[in-house]
Design brief:
Blueprint (H helix, E strand, L loop, with lengths): L1 E6 L4 H13 L3 E7 L19 E5 L5 H11 L3 E4 L6 H6 L2 H25 L5 E7 L24 H20 L3 E6 L1 E3 L8 H10 L4 E4 L5 E6 H14 L5 E4 L4 E3 H16 L9 E4 L14 H7 L7 H14 L1 H7 L2 H11 L2
Parallel strand pairs: 1-2, 1-4, 2-3, 4-5, 5-6, 6-10, 7-9, 8-12
Antiparallel strand pairs: 9-11
Helix pairs in contact: 1-7, 2-4, 4-5, 6-8, 8-10
This protein binds nicotinamide-adenine-dinucleotide and thymidine-5'-diphosphate.
């Protein structure tokens, strides 16, 4: 058996990853360390409360004392580091917490991992640092997709903080020999995504007959990756990736935001018998400052070295995602707390 530390395992991707591992990797035990910010929900793993393979610790990656205790007690075989502040718009209105969690938090985790790695010499140890394609900056419509050697050029406080944490993770490999792998993935979607992000926000606004806010002209392009594909890729990179290397993970599904919102309208209308009226809710609003025009991922290295290619088509996985939200409205309502309402009011109330 291996014991792995998952940070941020109660957020969107972390939740899906914990469930993926519990099903597909019966030889792995998980310790999920999560501070339960607004984006983390311990209820996501209620079904695991009596499972001996799963342990939840409510705590902060900035707490070096706690990290030391956990590494001493569990002697982890690897780390999957998801914990972060992850929303670009929030980083624009309040950047400081992004520096604290994403940069300092990653640094504390690297320090604790290195100290454990040196002391206990765990075989095949990997520190998998989960990052984003946003560190590469913005592409023109005709530019070739991001490769692992594309220079970093982040635009937002969020992507700048992730870029910094990527550099620290790589530096801990180069300087101290900690076996780090970095993954840079594109925009994820799927179950359990917090409805501040485009896809769940639009699904829920359609259901509530609220305006569907499209920034600028809606022409910005993202490469959409279904979260189940991302989870499979992460586990494979952990097993097969070369220490010190970066692997890009993309869905190969480039869409502009207006297309995404229109597709959501049509699918939700079909599923709820609304007869094509939801597109009327589309509302063009002020653009995001520093809004990157296009992201696109070249995943050839991950395909060739890791043997991973995304399986899910955008249309099918988007339809499944809508079904999940329709079937889990209790989950949605439970996270639409005071904090959520305040954010929506602050961001869209104008
Ligand atoms: P999320 O915001 O849904 O979840 C983040 C989780 O981290 C939450 O459970 C939160 O409680 C926890 N957390 C925050 N600060 C913490 C701290 N100081 N200590 C411990 N836990 C803390 O994020 P997500 O969308 O699941 O993203 C996970 C990772 O993937 C992030 O590192 C993000 O940068 C990266 N990523 C996300 C996407 C995407 O499309 N969502 C794309 C590329 C990369
Ligand atoms: P988002 O889901 O916030 O992810 P990211 O900023 O990490 O790409 O946004 C996806 C795209 O959708 C991005 O181009 C911004 C745009 N967007 C809107 O047009 N309206 C919205 O209300 C939101 C949240 C995002």
């Amino acid at each position: 058996m291996k014991t792995i530390l998952v940070t941020g395992g109660s957020g969107f991707i972390g939740t899906n990853f914990v469930k993926y591992v519990m099903t597909h990797y019966p030889q792995w035990n998980i310790l999920n360390l999560d501070a339960l910010t607004y984006a983390g929900n311990p209820e996501n793993h209620r079904e695991l409360s009596d499972d001996p393979r799963y342990t939840f610790v409510h705590g902060d990656i900035l707490d070096a004392g706690l990290l030391k205790k956990l590494f001493d007690a569990h002697r982890f075989d690897g780390v999957f580091h998801f914990a972060a502040e992850s929303h670009v718009d929030r980083s624009i209105t309040g950047p400081e917490v992004f520096l604290n969690t994403n940069i300092m938090g990653t640094f504390k985790l690297l320090e604790a991992s290195l100290s454990h790695f040196r002391k206990n010499k765990p075989a095949d140890f990997r520190f998998l640092h989960v990052s984003t394609d946003e560190v590469y900056g913005s592409l023109g419509f005709e530019d070739p997709a991001f490769r692992e050697d594309t220079p970093y050029d982040p635009s937002s406080p969020y992507s700048a903080s992730k870029a910094s944490s990527d550099h620290f993770a790589k530096a801990y490999f180069k300087t101290y020999g900690l076996p780090v792998v970095v993954t840079n993935c594109s925009n994820n979607y799927g179950p359990y995504q917090f409805p501040e992000k485009l896809i769940p926000l639009v699904i829920l606004n359609i259901l509530d007959k609220k305006p569907l806010p499209v920034y600028g002209k809606g022409e910005n392009i993202r490469d959409w990756l279904y979260v189940a594909d991302h989870c499979e890729a992460l586990a494979k990179v952990f097993e097969k990736g070369t220490a010190g290397e970066t692997y890009n993970i993309g869905g190969g599904e480039e869409k502009n935001n207006l297309e995404v919102v229109q597709t959501l309208c049509d699918l939700v209308d079909q599923k709820t018998g609304k007869n094509g009226t939801s597109r009327d809710l589309i509302t063009f609003v002020a653009d995001r400052p520093g809004h990157d025009i296009r992201y696109a991922i070249n995943s050839d290295k991950t395909r060739d070295e890791i043997g991973f290619t995304a399986r899910y088509s955008f249309e099918q996985a988007l339809s499944d995602t809508i079904d999940w939200y329709l079937e889990n409205l209790d989950w949605v309502r439970s996270i639409q707390t005071g904090e959520y309402r305040q954010w929506i009011e602050k961001q869209y109330g104008r």
